[in-house]
C-alpha cells in the first residue's frame, strides 16, 4: 500500500518575525534549513523513497523539499511544482505583525481570521506591495484576494485529485513539501476531520508526517517521524 509524507517547510524568516506570510515568497532561516535537513535524515531512517515530490511555487517549501531530499540521499527524485499547493492567502493581513494586528483589531477578531474554517480575512487591496496578480507564476490563474481554510481546500483538492492521488493509487510513495494550511487541507480531506476540529490541527515545521494509506487512499496509520516535536493527529478512521 502507498505511503505519503507531508512535510511542512522549515521555519521561515517571517515565521521568526511573527508576520502573516501567505503567498509572500520569503526564505528559510538557518533554523528552517536545519529543520529541513533533519527532516530528510528522518525520511531516510524510515526507509521512505518517494517516486515523486510535489511542492508549491514558494521558495520556503521548494528549498525545504530540496534540502530534505539531499539529506536523505534522494536528490534524483522528480519534483513537481504547482501554485495550488501554496500557503493560504492571508489577504489584507499579509505582511502584518500578528501581535500588532491583535492589538489593533482585538485578539478575538484575529483568532476568527486565523482559525475559523470558513471566514476569510479582509481582502488584499489591488495595486499594493503584496498584489500578486502581475507575478508571472500566477498569470492566467484565478488569484484570490483572501482565503479561508475552506477556500484553500477548494483549490488544493482538485490538484490532489488530478495530480497526486493517481500516483498514490498506482502504488507509488509520495512526498509533499508545502505549507501549514495547504497540508491541513489535505489532512482534513484524508482523515475526514470535521470543520470545527480541523482548526485545531497544527503541523510542526520540518517534521515529516508519514501516513500509510489503503487502496482507497484512506489512512490506516499516521505518525510524525520526530516524536519529540509531534502534535496531536486526527484519529485514523475518524
TrEMBL record:
Which pathway does the record list?
Answer: Carbohydrate degradation; glycolysis; pyruvate from D-glyceraldehyde 3-phosphate: step 3/5
Gene symbol?
Answer: gpmA
Q: Which residues bind substrate?
A: 8-15, 21-22, 60, 87-90, 98, 114-115, 180-181
Provide an example Pfam family for this protein. Answer: His_Phos_1
Name listed for the protein in its UniProt record: 2,3-bisphosphoglycerate-dependent phosphoglycerate mutase
> Where is the catalytic site?
9, 87
Q: What's the top EC group for this one? A: isomerase
EC number(s) on record? 5.4.2.11
What the protein does comes down to:
Catalyzes the interconversion of 2-phosphoglycerate and 3-phosphoglycerate.
Q: What is the protein's quaternary organization?
A: Homodimer.
Question: Which reactions are catalysed by this chain?
Answer: (2R)-2-phosphoglycerate = (2R)-3-phosphoglycerate
Amino acid at each position: 500500500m502507498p505511503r505519503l509524507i507531508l512535510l511542512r517547510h522549515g521555519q521561515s524568516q517571517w515565521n521568526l518575525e511573527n508576520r502573516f506570510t501567505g503567498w509572500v515568497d520569503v526564505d528559510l532561516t538557518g533554523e528552517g534549513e536545519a529543520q529541513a535537513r533533519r527532516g530528510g535524515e528522518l525520511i531516510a531512517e524510515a526507509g521512505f523513497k518517494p517516486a515523486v515530490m510535489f511542492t508549491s511555487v514558494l521558495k520556503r517549501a521548494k528549498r525545504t523539499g530540496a534540502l530534505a531530499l539531499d539529506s536523505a540521499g534522494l536528490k534524483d527524485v522528480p519534483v513537481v511544482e504547482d501554485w495550488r499547493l501554496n500557503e493560504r492567502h492571508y489577504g489584507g493581513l499579509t505582511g502584518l505583525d500578528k501581535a500588532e494586528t491583535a492589538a489593533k483589531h482585538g485578539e478575538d477578531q484575529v483568532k476568527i481570521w486565523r482559525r475559523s474554517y470558513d471566514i476569510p480575512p479582509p481582502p488584499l487591496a489591488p495595486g499594493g506591495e503584496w498584489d500578486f496578480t502581475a507575478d508571472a507564476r500566477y498569470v492566467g490563474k484565478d488569484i484570490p484576494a483572501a482565503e479561508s481554510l475552506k477556500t484553500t481546500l477548494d483549490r488544493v483538492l482538485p490538484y490532489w485529485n488530478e495530480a497526486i492521488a493517481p500516483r498514490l493509487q498506482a502504488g507509488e510513495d509520495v512526498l509533499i513539501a508545502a505549507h501549514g494550511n495547504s497540508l491541513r487541507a489535505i489532512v482534513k480531506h484524508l482523515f475526514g476531520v470535521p470543520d470545527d476540529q480541523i482548526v485545531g490541527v497544527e503541523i510542526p515545521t520540518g517534521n515529516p508526517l508519514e501516513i500509510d494509506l489503503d487502496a482507497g487512499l484512506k489512512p490506516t496509520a499516521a505518525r510524525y517521524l520526530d516524536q519529540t516535536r509531534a502534535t496531536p493527529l486526527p484519529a485514523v478512521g475518524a
